[in-house]
Amino acid sequence: MNVNEYVAKRILELRKSKNLTAEKLAWSAELSKSCICSAEKGLKDTKISTINSICNAMDITLAEFFSVFDKPVL
């Protein structure tokens, strides 16, 4: 599993745990729904600014987002 796949899995996991649709998360994060869907699929690199917007919309910090990565994924 590469970094993009880990990030994608984490975004999806957090979104579902907060009972948000991709559309509601996109609206709260001021991103497009396609941006959220693309990030959740991990098909391309997700910019840290996008992850930060997603984190802000879900009321978590970047540190909390990345806290599950207890070992290097590279």
Describe this structure in words.
There is one protein chain. This protein is mainly α and 74 residues long. Helix content is 64%, strand content 0%. It is built from 5 helices and no strands. Helix 2 packs across helix 4 (48-57). It is globular and about 30 Å long. It starts with a helix and ends in an 8-residue tail after the last helix.
Give a summary of the structure in a few sentences.
The chain has 74 residues and is mainly alpha-helical. Helix content is 64%, strand content 0%. The termini are close together.
SS elements, strand count: 0
Order of helices and strands: HHHHH
Rg on CA atoms, Å: 11 Å
Instruction: Report how far the terminal alpha carbons are from each other.
Output: 9 Å
Low-confidence stretches: none
Structural class: mainly alpha
The overall pLDDT, averaged over residues, is: 91
Largest sheet: none
